[in-house]
Amino acid sequence: MAQVQRTIPLLLPADEDLRQTLAVFQAVQQQLSAPCFNGGQPLSAVALHRACYRQVKGQLNAQMTCSAIRLVAAAYQSAQSNRRPPQRPFQFRRRRALFLIGPRGRDASLRPDGTLSIWTVAGRKQLPYRVPEAFQQRLAQAKTMDSLTVLERAGQLVGRLTLTLEAPDPQPLPAAEETAGSRQVVGIDLNETNALVAVDGQERVLFVSGKAVKVRNRRTAKTRARLQRKLAARKAQHRDTRSVRRVLKRLGRKQRHRTQTFAQTVAKRLGEWAPPQAVLVFERLQLPPPQHGQIRGRALRRRLALWQRGLIRRWAEQQAQERGLRVVEVNPAYTSQLCSHCGQRGTRRRHRFTCPHCGAEEHADINAARNIRARARCTVLRGSGLLSTSPEARAAAAAGKPLA
Ligand SMILES: [Zn+2]
């Protein structure tokens, strides 16, 4: 069994003592920040502990004091490893606190009676909590609970509970002769209008429309363009632009959130639909060249669509990890132009693909998904010795045709 870590949200009541605990945790981090910065030579967690533990102890329990020390040192460490050495001490402005759970600690625990037992500055408390429906299964499957981070968001207390789940190991595929049909190989085409189209080895099709999200994103883009113009006009007149900027920011946040949620839903549907021990085949994403200045209109929409595809991929990989599925990538060239039956070039008119050579006619994205599937069978999997050449690949090779 492989182990994977996941985080689920926990909704908490507005408890004053818990809120106060977050404030103290933040204050301790803030006290540690300057000494950890150490004039631009950040201290390691061990060195920071040695230098400051005595000064900051007593405000939190011992274990949480250690957690605060580790988090502060980690913030400086990650800034350095991102090659952005800090220029001055960090400000720890957000109220949050880390509570260790289970084998790692006893700062908090979920009790069988359905309450959260948690350490606060006013002593241990039992608080009611709620796990959103969508995450309850994950909680039930948890092998261990590792930690709980509580933070304040828009005046509410929210927890992020980190769990360790057991996931099946990806199975080695059966011997080459048995996989001629290779029923588990799933070709996946990602698009904007049809967010995801997948075809498995038994020709089962999964179709997830992206139209609703696309329409809403277009609408947001229009509003945004209008606000950009307004902003420019106000700037030219030297008028206050704060309110316009605020609305623009909120709009952007809303759109990002919408796309994230959508990508998660799509990935989940794929995970549930895919046959057990499936091999998920995606096209390699082609990243656009770096852009300079502000991007608008068509270029912006294209980037958004690409970002959405990237997100679906990322969430699909998470699903695959939890379900013990494999993910492979293939070359995207011509997957939407070639006929998945005969391998020759066809024509695409909107969502209809027709092949003048063999007469095949089909939804264009299903055709593309089949090509992606075929490409994995004849290149990636064969190359790694995982799979034999598919019947289509053999037939195409025998006929001397290029294979899609
Ligand atoms: Zn054809």
Automatic annotation (TrEMBL):
Residues 312-372 form the Cas12f1-like TNB domain. The keyword Coiled coil does not apply. Keywords: DNA recombination, DNA-binding, Transposition. It comes from the Bacteria. Pfam families: Cas12f1-like_TNB (PF07282), OrfB_IS605 (PF01385). GO terms for molecular function: DNA binding. InterPro entries: Cas12f1-like_TNB, Transposase. The keyword DNA-binding applies. Coiled coil: none annotated. Residues 177-272 form the Probable transposase IS891/IS1136/IS1341 domain. GO terms for biological process: DNA recombination; transposition. In the C-terminal section; belongs to the transposase 35 family. NCBIfam families: guided_TnpB. This is Transposase.
